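U., I forgot to send this yesterday:
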Amino acid sequence: MNETQKIPGERVASIEEYLPGENTFEDNDVIRATTIGNIKLDSTERLAAINSQTQITVPKVGDIIIGVVEANLPSMIAIMIKFVNGKKVVADLECVCVTRHIRKKNIALAQDVVKAEIISHINGTIHASIDSEELGVLFTKCRKCFGTVVKMRDAVKCKDCTWIDDRKLSSDFGKSEFMNQN
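Result:
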């Protein structure tokens, strides 16, 4: 095994020789480090990994994340990840969620709290989905008066100004059990 010190973003190995292992990610045809540590190249399993004392919680494919919508574009939203599988994240990580196939006027707006599932890591970008029934907006405010909203089937209605807005709501809309976990 070959061990050399690496920092986040540095090249660890080539994708033609190894697969990304623990504390690494694929960026085009290069495997890069996600944390500070020593390279561990496993020739039998063909895995490139980083041995590290500190762990950064980078969500894996299939993980459920909860985050805040930072940007709302016509065909996607950018989410700042706050929780991964119910555990609070200390690092600032963002993921993108493609929304062009969802037939809603407003999938989610900036500052909405959403629940999503990680579906891939492509070119150093974390991709998520909100397609399932339990995924979508967990908390939101009225976009007209910033008042409290209540769920009405697949939309939200403001208690103050009675504005009704269409969103991709999670079946867990309004539930905050994740906030009580560490």
